[in-house]
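Summary of Year 1 activities. Much of the first year was spent building the evaluation harness for sequence design. The harness presents a backbone, in tokenized form, and records the residue chosen at every position. We chose the following record to illustrate the format because it has been used consistently in internal testing since the harness was completed.
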């Protein structure tokens, strides 16, 4: 099946349309997937209502309302919190197979694409009684088509579903495959949680400007434009970030004064510890919520 017909025949069911589900739905719609290709199950009444209003898509309240059309290339995006995952997966289990009286057998096995932090493939497969599972770790810039998603699949996922998972993630930005499942925890720590570190940096840069006497609007403009300009410069440059940093740092100047303080406070070490904590938490959540 070529990519165009694979995409056109895809039906994507989101279980959970909260922060990340919403970002992916929005990004996928903007990239050309059609409204009719989506189903969403969202238990929260307010979130449910808002999804219907904003996107005009079909949003169900409960999992028992799902009925897969097995003539489609079904993708089920598991976008609930890790602590809700096992219950959802166990409820979904019976739905993933056509009923014995069904006249349609799946063209390809439904793909279960989990974006949940920590939840491991072995646990998903046990709960779902279904092999065709892929782990993905996207991030919220998917909302504007600038996400980056780390993906892991093992050999039990066939070529079509491998390609489908990648196509969906590419539609909302970029996708990278990692070679070991364990590395999805690292992806989570770096880029899944990463936007929050960047937003915290932006908050701090703006607040520092205000403390130096700039009004809030000006401080915000300076901080946001600096982050945008610097990251685009780094992105488009052949040089590593360390060289770009040196070019800003005049000998005995202002940048050197600021970077000296960050060095004394072991800024890099602190950030490494923070990202290590996220990686550890991802593993711990896998153990905590993977039981049962
Ligand atoms: N937020 C992010 O930046 C990222 C999140 N992720 C992962 O994505 C997943 C979702 O995170 P996030 O979007 O932030 O979480 P949210 O809580 O915003 O969204 C999850 C939604 O699922 C709903 N829900 C709970 N149980 C069910 C059910 N049985 N059926 C249907 N819907 C249900 C929740 O309702 P209620 O609130 O009422 O429980 C909630 O609205 C997590 O596993 C997280 O690890 C991955 C990458 C980035
Ligand atoms: O904070 C979390 O657990 C989720 C996973 C990555 C981003 N948000």
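For this record, the design step produced the sequence shown next.
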């Amino acid at each position: 099946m070529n990519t165009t017909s694979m995409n056109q025949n895809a039906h994507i069911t989101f279980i959970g349309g909260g922060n990340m589900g919403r970002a992916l739905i929005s990004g996928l719609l903007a990239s050309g997937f059609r409204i009719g290709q989506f189903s969403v199950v969202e238990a929260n009444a307010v979130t449910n209502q808002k999804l219907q209003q904003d996107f005009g898509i079909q949003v169900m309240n409960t999992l028992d309302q799902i009925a897969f059309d097995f003539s489609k290339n079904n993708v089920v995006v598991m976008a609930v919190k890790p602590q809700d995952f096992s219950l959802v997966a166990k409820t979904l289990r019976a739905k993933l197979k056509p009923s014995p009286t069904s006249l349609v057998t799946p063209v390809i096995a439904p793909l279960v694409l989990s974006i949940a932090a920590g939840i491991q493939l072995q646990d998903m497969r046990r709960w779902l009684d279904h092999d065709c599972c892929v782990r993905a770790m996207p991030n919220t810039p998917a909302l504007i088509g600038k996400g980056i998603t780390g993906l892991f699949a093992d050999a039990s996922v066939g070529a079509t579903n491998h390609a489908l998972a990648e196509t969906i993630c590419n539609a909302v930005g970029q996708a990278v495959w990692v070679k070991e499942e364990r590395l999805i925890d690292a992806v989570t720590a770096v880029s899944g949680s990463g936007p929050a570190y960047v937003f915290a940096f932006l908050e701090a840069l703006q607040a520092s400007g205000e403390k130096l006497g700039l009004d809030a609007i000006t401080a915000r403009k300076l901080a946001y434009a600096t982050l945008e300009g610097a990251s685009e410069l780094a992105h488009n440059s052949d040089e590593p970030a360390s060289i770009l940093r040196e070019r800003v740092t005049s000998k005995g100047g202002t940048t050197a004064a600021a970077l000296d303080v960050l060095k004394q406070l072991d800024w890099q070490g602190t950030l490494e510890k923070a990202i290590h904590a996220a990686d550890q938490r991802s593993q711990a959540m896998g153990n905590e919520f993977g039981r049962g």
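The radius of gyration is 22 Å. Quantitative recovery figures across the full test set are reported in Table 2.
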